[in-house]
Sequence to fold (162 residues):
Amino acid sequence: MAASAVAVIALLIALRYAGRLQMDEARVARWEAGFFLGAVAALAVLFLATLPWLPWNSAAAVSSNVQPVKVEVTASQFVFKVDGGPIPSGQVIEFDATATDVNHGLGVYDGDRLLFQVQMMPGYVNRYFWIFDHPGTYQVKCMEFCGSGHAFMVGKIEVTGS
Ligand SMILES: [Cu+2]
Fold:
């Protein structure tokens, strides 16, 4: 209520003085240009400063010359089959994900945190690169509704020390 009253009063004052206000358009244009350049510079600094913390390390893995460890993950109603490994932490892992029957989704979790997900399609191999930052048991959940057992379609990935 008080905020509305203040807004109405501010509006009335603005309308009262609207006609009298002399605007120096050149000055406003300079201020706008300065604000724009400042905002672009601030965003560029922010972007570059936070680049190392991007959650997608797939691009870094692909651009490195390291030979990845291949892991094939095949989904069928309602199981995951993981072939390959051992899967070491700190190394580039290439997940080749496919399905035998219907579309599924490969969602890899570290506890409650979803690390990444990849669509799994019959007749097509989706390739995804990931670097696990610590050893342990990671949970795999289906991310695509695939039938009556979808909610129970879970698996696991064991990641060893590097
Ligand atoms: Cu599913």
